[in-house]
Specification:
The chain has 3 helices and 6 strands; from the N terminus they run E-H-H-E-E-E-E-E-H. With about 110 residues, it is an alpha+beta fold.
Length: about 110
Amino acid sequence: MSYAVEYFNQRVFDEIESWPVGVLAHYARLVDLLMEFGPDLRMPHSRALGAGLFELRPRGRDGAGRALCCFFSGACAVVLYAFLKKTPAIPKRDLTIARRRMKEVVRDE
């Protein structure tokens, strides 16, 4: 099965595009894997955060990024929120935003 990847809004896409080139290149590879494996993609590439939320874990010489996503309508992944990591754990504020957006996506389905 092949999965489509969409972005919650243009700002999420722009945030990812602003990442350092090494992190962005690894993200592009992870999106290819996500399109192939969907929610079955696991560590070290992706991790389930619970309640249908997943994180993609791109990294490069210049740091690490996180793209929080969910799946809906069978074969579609939506990237809800993205940021460059500055702390070991995902900040609670970022998780809250992603979970709120996930509710919007699922409700609009």
